[in-house]
Amino acid sequence: MNLDSFQITSAVVHDIPHGGDQDQPLVLTDAPITLDDALSAYFRKKIIKSLGLRGLEVVVDPDGAACVREAVAEVLASADRVVEASKRVAEHLHEVQTGRNSAGLLTMVLGQIDARPCVAVLKLEREQGLRFKIDTDQQGRKTVDLELLRELTLTDKTKVFKTSLLMLGDSDRAESMYGRVSDDQRGKDDGIGVATFYLSTFLGCQLKTSPEKATLDFVRVTESFFNEHVTSPEKRGQYQVALLAKMQDNTMDVRPRDFAAANLDASDRAPFSEAVRAAGIDPTVAFEKDTSLIKINGFKMVFESGMVLVGKSGDLADRVSIRSENAT
Which residue from 4, 146, 174, 295 puts its CA 20 to 30 A from 43's CA? Predict the structure, then answer.
């Protein structure tokens, strides 16, 4: 997905009460909102930023709920079905929410990316106690109070916390749905993963590649690139140290492009990205790090002088003598 190519054509907004709250009703609207340039720019910016920073590639979970994928297929087949389809998605979210899920605005956005139709499904957190205002048009349809919506969105009082951008494969069947999903409600210490509730229970999706396999694939292609394309033994050693350090540090995520920018010489970054892409990994997309499939036999020690010692684990016991600070 080239996120910069994303454009919005229409959007529908519904109000979802706090999970398990029987006193606040689900408020459904009957028409798309009137998108002026400012609102379109707001939604577009939020979607691109969220998916660009934290987006993970997903596919349909065959055993997951079918509501969202069927709604996406329906809307992409006929854009005038966006209101009815979005209502079912809103009702589905209301049904599966629990007391842990806060109230919010469920938004379904119809648009295009890479010149192909797509659907974005978002949950926007709104301030607790803020009432969703509804207007009624001349046809008796319930519509969003646009002045309130502009006040919320354009001042950033409402933040996009969960985002998905979904498309259909070549078969145009609901089961072929795929896309990118992000969860901005997760803290920095939680990494870029997506809450199971949103990804599986609500969207009916699963990660395209598990974190442990994504990490293993990245390590394999990175080591192959070092061995096959880096001729300098000294530089190759430096790169290996950087890879080992990345696998052993406490960061939760890895973005191949950022790894290259931080650790590789400028002349090696483009070839590295090409090698990563050729292996089926998008260098611009981060993945959740999980080293459970990687056998890390090395060690890395950083001294106050800045010197780094790296080697095999066995060498640490057999060939390195470590003395206490008080030793003479």
Answer: 174
Q: Are 96 and 202 in contact (CB under 8 A)?
A: yes
pLDDT, one tens digit per residue, over 97-111 is: 876 777 788 899 999
Q: Which position has the token pair 């409402």?
A: 158
- List the one residue out of 217, 228, 323 whose CA is nearest residue 272: 228
Q: What are phi and psi of 30, to 5 degrees?
A: -115, 5
Global pTM reads 0.72
Phi/psi for 289 (5° steps) reads: -80, 130
Q: Which spans in the chain are helix H?
A: 37-54, 67-77, 82-96, 146-154, 196, 211-229, 233-248, 256-263, 266-278, 313-319
For residues 66 and 85, give the distance between their C-alpha atoms in angstroms, rounded to a whole number: 12
Residues 207-243 pLDDT 10s:
888 889 999 999 999 999 998 999 888 888 889 889 9
Which of these ranges, 82-96, 140-154, 264-278, has the smallest mean pLDDT? Answer: 140-154
Q: Decide which of 249 and 135 is more confident.
A: 249
Distances (CA, A) of 112 to 2, 12, 192, 231, 299: 11, 16, 25, 44, 48
Transcribe 93-133 into DSSP letters. Answer: HHHH--TTSPPEEEEEEEEEETTEEEEEEEEEE--TTPPPP
User: Tokens representing 269?
Assistant: 């970054």
Q: Do the Cβ atoms of 261 and 164 come closer than 8 Å?
A: no
- 287: helix, strand or coil: strand
CB contact at 8 A, 43 and 109: yes
